[in-house]
Amino acid sequence: MSDIQSKAEAQAPLLRIVRGSKVYGGLHAIDGVDFELRAGEIHALLGENGAGKSTLCKAIAGAITLTSGDYLIDGQKVTFTSPQEALRGGVAMVYQESSLVPSMTVAQNLELGMEKFLTIYSKINIAATQSLQSMNFNVDPLTLVENLGTAKRQMVEIVRAVRHSARIFIFDEPTASLTPEETQHLFHLLRTLKERGAGIIFISHALEEAIDIGDRVTVLRDGKLVSTAPAKGMTRDALVRMMIGRDISASHYATHGADPDAPKPQAKRGDKVLSVENVTMGSVVKNMSFSVFDGEVVGIFGLVGAGRSEIAQIICGARKRNFLRGGMIYLRGRPVRYRVPRQAVRDGIAYITEDRKVDGFFETMTVDQNIYLGYLSSPHVRRFFYSVREMKRIADQWIKVLSISALKRSLKIVEYSGGNQQKVVVAKSLAQEPTIVIFDEPTRGVDVSAIPQIHAAIRRLAADGKAVVVISSYLPEVLAISDRVLVARGGRIVEEMSRADATEDKIMYAAIH
How crowded is residue 245: how many other Cβ atoms within 10 Å of its Cβ? Predict the structure, then answer.
């Protein structure tokens, strides 16, 4: 055991939640949870979507207040009524979706909450440069946040928290959108903060990461504490069993999205329905070509910047390929060039976005309303009035198929967990009854027990004769559900493999070299 860990265990906890509960509409989001965080510790917080992880952390970060229970920092009871108040008390939360202001520069975002009566931009920029360099972050303080990638936005969030003298950091799914290299850089930063005596709460669905980076692990299930134990010696199977209350074989199914003992479904390839030929968009997509057939699942793997999401958005009309020498896209032999996504939806193409918060759902509407709007946008529906009965019927159907869970159906979708939001985005698109479905990171931010449900839905689409494209940066997912695997690199498809020939090593080698 390290000296840092020994000292951390010898002193009083930096933070404690004693019998913490939060009730919504008579239902417990968390129920009598005891949790503590030590100085100089990385504490992994795990559980399925709806287990209460986000609720607990929002209470710690001041976004909500506990219905009952005590909240103590350094042994003293505290009550934070807002995130700003919590930040002044030394608690900072780095959310899965950035809380930065996109239209402001990095330096301006770092200054938010610390503004002087007289703003001198040159001093703000110098201070921002010093703060970024002190954390070894290569970010230009004059850049607008909207022009930054996910990894650099996280860097800015972290620096902002450090500048506010935070001692308690909460990271909600920080690696969900990062490359392996960016993930390792983040882990190095977390260990640096830990060495400085900070306490870190780390929420992740990537269980191996939690075991790797964490000193201790706490598992929640159905709003209740299941276990708190040292991360060392913990196994993935043990964690999954605690999270979902099932045995090892069930956890394997949840991990890989397919029963290892079940026969692999064989695709019955039909006609060619989609053909992409030499499609080019600036320097991001370069002469990309591939075909998709009825009744198969095509997996597209590639590292960040490979052009995977961009080609999907070009196909569905969300982005425009080059007007001259931009290549061709054929739908059942007919050349198409969609100006807006609505035209693609009319032709039976559904694109399920990787960024659910920005363009995946209507956040002020309920689950039922979101799914019903997807249904109404289908070219097969001819309805001129809003039917509450029909909305409930359609929503009930997809809630059952995808096991969407929530505390209350009347809640706005923005109040749901990230995994349930993702399943609603999937349901909203599938309710359109498309013939070609493009999934972009379909299980990002989804808990382990929900992954096989989404994978099963994808396989059912192919079994029903639909053409399916799955874009994913998670290799086990690509291998579990794909009939063919395409590897993208530098804006091109550089390799095509059959299910039988594809291996993690081959795919990764093609993606890098």
Answer: 13
- Indicate left, alpha or beta for 88 from its phi (over 0: left) and psi (-120 to 50: alpha): alpha
Quote the CA–CA distance of 444 and 176 in Å, as a whole number: 7
- Cα distance between residue 148 and residue 101, in whole Å: 12
Q: Which residues of 178-201 are buried (b: 16+ CB within 10 A; e: fewer)?
A: bbeebbebbbebbeebbeeebbbb
Tell me what pLDDT residue 177 has: 63
Bridge-based pairing of strands 467-471 and 436-440 is parallel
3-state secondary structure 227-270: EEEECCCCCHHHHHHHHHCCCHHHHHHHHHCCCCCCCCCCCCCC
Task: Give residue 59's pLDDT.
Answer: 93
Q: Find the largest Cα–Cα distance for the chain.
A: 71
Cβ–Cβ under 8 Å, residues 375 and 431: yes
- What is the predicted pLDDT for the residue at 119? 67
pLDDT recorded at residue 311:
94
Evaluate whether 274 touches 334 at the Cβ level (below 8 Å). Answer: no
Contact 470, 300 (CB under 8 A): yes
Report whether 243 contacts 210 (CB < 8 A).
Answer: no
pTM greater than 0.70 (yes/no)? no
Which residues of the chain fall short of a pLDDT of 50?
A: 1, 8, 247-265
Beta-carbon count within 10 A of 9 CB: 14
Integer angstrom CA distances of residue 415 from 100, 125, 286, 406: 19, 36, 40, 9
The pLDDT value given to residue 416:
77
* 333-347 per-position pLDDT tens digit: 999 999 999 999 999
Q: How far apart are CA 450 and CA 45, in angstroms?
A: 18
Closest listed residue to residue 164, CA positions, set 92, 254, 107: 92
